[in-house]
Design brief:
The structure is a single chain. The chain is built from 13 helices and eleven strands. With 365 residues, it is of the alpha/beta class. The chain folds into two domains: 164 residues, Bacterial extracellular solute-binding protein, family 7 (D-Maltodextrin-Binding Protein, domain 2), CATH 3.40.190; 116 residues, Bacterial extracellular solute-binding protein, family 7 (D-Maltodextrin-Binding Protein, domain 2, 3-Layer(aba) Sandwich), CATH 3.40.190.170. The protein has a six-stranded mixed beta sheet. It has a five-stranded mixed beta sheet with strand order 2-1-3-10-4. Helix 2 links the parallel strand 1 and strand 2. Helix 2 runs antiparallel to helix 10, helix 2 runs antiparallel to helix 11 and helix 10 packs parallel to helix 11. The chain is globular, with a radius of gyration of 33 Å. The N and C termini lie far apart (127 Å).
Length: 365
């Protein structure tokens, strides 16, 4: 009996082993699928660009965004520009330091806000230079840029993309037309500081300092009798509603430099650097900014004031002889700029100013 049970147990064990072997999973066959190759295309380089004008402004929509897109397209998407309008990335007065520190990769820098930092560039601030439009100012400035290495050295800490000057600021008044040098005496006029303010003092006016956003109400209340202004501000702040006299004297221009952080610039390939500068840099990009930001808006603003708004627009341009009187009255400011700039270590100041006058006459529109 024991032998029978032992035999039966052995048979059952053998059966279980055989059954298990038959139902065991087959060994895994190595996959023959080709593994996915990781993309070798690097992600685009992001450039965060800061501008002063609000997002929905005419300048942002018609100048800043097309300019950035042209440079971006020139790299076939390898560099992406992200616009921060309305000073949302850095404030205008902090833009230069913001670019140097990398808070912004690139930004619009108003050179006149940095006293003593750009002495040669600020030659355009001199009053009553023979410059007639913003585009003309850009042509003149870039001729100086090409001829004077020390002018370029003022921007050696950054990569300069474009420097687009404004058109000349002109004079607007509320109560009387200014036609002669004598007419300006005693008028309280808003000015932005610098040589233009000094010129007003020399002419007998009373310069008043205030923010551009405050001028409308102060003109309306008679706190000031007028101001120096570009067409862009006339449109942006609707100043045409509270003035009616326009006197076209080329008081001064200002420079708006669009510059990039060097670390950001050096991340971009040489090929794409060249493409960016060709699309939106140098004299081409600068004239794009000057013409479209300042000159183009003049026509639309004048048309609106005259044909649609119903506000008075009484215009006057001094004769050549009268203009010479204004220039002669402020010539000491030119001479002071030369002596002050030479004292800062720029013996070429007189040559630079003389060259500006020569080029301005040769390129007069």
């Amino acid at each position: 009996m024991k032998n029978f049970l032992l035999t039966l147990g052995v048979a059952l064990l053998v059966g279980v082993l055989v059954l298990t072997a038959c139902t065991a999973p087959a060994p895994t066959t190595p996959s023959t699928t080709t593994p996915t190759t990781p993309s070798t295309t690097p992600p685009p380089i992001l450039v965060r660009h800061s501008e002063e004008t609000p997002e929905n402004s005419w300048v942002t929509q018609n100048v800043a965004l097309p300019w950035l897109k042209a440079m971006e397209d020139s790299t076939e998407g390898r560099v992406k520009f992200q616009l921060y309008p309305g000073q949302t990335l850095v404030k205008t007065q902090d833009a230069w330091d913001g670019v140097l520190s990398g808070v912004a990769d690139s930004a619009c820098v108003m050179t006149f806000m940095h006293a003593g930092k750009f002495p040669l560039s600020d030659v355009l601030l001199l009053p009553l230079l023979p410059i007639y439009t913003a585009d003309h100012a850009a042509v003149v400035f870039w001729e100086l840029w090409d001829r004077f290495p020390t002018l370029r050295e003022e921007f050696k800490e950054v990569q300069t993309l474009a420097i687009g000057p404004s058109g000349p600021y002109f004079l607007i008044t509320t109560k009387k037309q200014v036609k002669t040098l004598e007419d300006i005496k005693g008028l309280k006029l808003r000015a932005g500081g610098g040589p233009a303010t000094e010129a007003l003092k020399m002419m007998g006016a009373v310069p008043v300092t205030m923010g551009m956003a405050d001028t409308y109400l102060n003109l309306q209340k008679g706190v000031i009798d007028g101001m120096l202004v570009p067409w862009l501000a006339m449109d942006t702040f609707k100043i045409y509603e509270v003035v009616k006299y326009y006197t076209y004297l080329p008081f001064s221009c200002m420079n708006a430099a669009r510059v990039m952080n060097l670390n950001t610039w050096n991340k971009i390939s040489a090929k794409d650097q060249e493409a960016i500068l060709a699309a939106g840099g140098g004299v081409t990009g600068s004239r794009f900014w000057s013409k479209n930001q300042f000159d183009s808006i003049e026509g639309t603003t004048r048309e609106y004031i005259k044909n649609k708004s119903g506000y008075d627009m009484i215009e006057y341009t001094p004769s050549e002889a009268e203009m010479k009187r204004w220039v002669d009255a402020t010539r000491p400011i030119w001479d002071k700029w030369v002596s002050d700039t030479e004292a800062m270590g720029h013996p070429e100041a007189r040559e630079l100013l003389d060259t500006l006058l020569e080029v301005a006459e040769a390129t007069k529109p």
